[in-house]
Design brief:
This is PE domain-containing protein. It is built from four helices and no strands. By secondary structure, it is mainly alpha-helical. The protein has one domain.
């Protein structure tokens, strides 16, 4: 097949998969903090737990960076989800309109064919 085609089923699956993944990421956090990624930063491990101040400092730094990374990922994921939903809506509308157009054309064709007999006279 040549040309450009869109698999609407695959687009729907991608949309659902991204939406489910974002929902699961949000569930990992403390209620109300999942949008900001703050729940990750609250996982502080002090020197009593790590055994060394330098390790605690590095863990705190990593968790702070993860806080911003998760927040940005959730935000980017929401943007991707919105754009995918818009694109999917446009393609679904185009497919519906194209199908409707072909159905109307087929109806005109059927009416034209059934109105004349094979001998050339009207029925």
């Amino acid at each position: 097949m040549s040309g450009y085609t869109i698999d609407l089923g695959a687009m729907n699956n991608a949309y659902s998969g991204i939406k489910d993944t974002l929902g699961q990421l949000r569930e990992l956090g403390i209620k109300g903090m999942e949008e900001s990624g703050e729940s990750i930063e609250s996982l502080e491990l002090d020197e009593d737990v790590t055994g060394h101040e330098a390790i605690s400092d590095r863990v705190e730094e990593v968790l702070m960076r993860a806080h911003y990374a998760l927040r940005d990922l959730l935000d980017d994921g929401d943007d991707i989800l919105d754009k995918l939903k818009e694109t999917l809506s446009v393609y679904q509308k185009m497919e519906t309109e194209a199908t409707s157009g072909f159905e109307q054309l087929w109806g005109v064709f059927e009416d034209t064919v059934t109105m004349r007999s094979p001998r050339g006279g009207a029925q």
